[in-house]
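Structure first, sequence second, as always.
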């Protein structure tokens, strides 16, 4: 009504979501495959990185549902049911997001423990 253009960032969020999960998957697969091919045991930090990827894989479909429900659009262009559904998905995204933030930090801690618990590192 005020003449402002209607914004919809949903498609760009969707592309970003797909690209980032594919890049993360490629790098984790390369890392794991290298260790397996070289005969290096997967340690706790490697398993934590894999858990991070799985959490990211769980986040992608939730993001897609949130975008289809109206995430990225101006709020006044949505009906009340869309707003409720979008906010529900947004809450799920928030929980998974904080999980995805925590797991790489744990992986780095596990890596430091593995490296610096070696007597030769002192």
């Amino acid at each position: 009504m005020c003449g402002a253009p209607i914004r919809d960032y949903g498609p760009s969020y969707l592309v970003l979501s797909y690209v980032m999960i594919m890049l993360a998957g490629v790098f984790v697969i390369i890392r794991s495959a290298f260790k397996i091919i070289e005969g290096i045991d997967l340690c706790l930090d490697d398993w934590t990185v894999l858990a991070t990827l799985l959490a990211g894989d769980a986040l992608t479909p939730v993001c897609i549902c949130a975008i289809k429900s109206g995430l990225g659009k101006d709020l006044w262009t949505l009906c009340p049911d869309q707003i409720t559904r979008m906010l529900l998905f947004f809450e799920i995204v928030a929980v998974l997001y904080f999980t995805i933030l925590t797991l790489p930090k744990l992986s780095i801690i596990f890596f430091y423990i593995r490296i610096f618990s070696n007597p030769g590192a002192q």
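Margin note: The chain has a mean pLDDT of 88.
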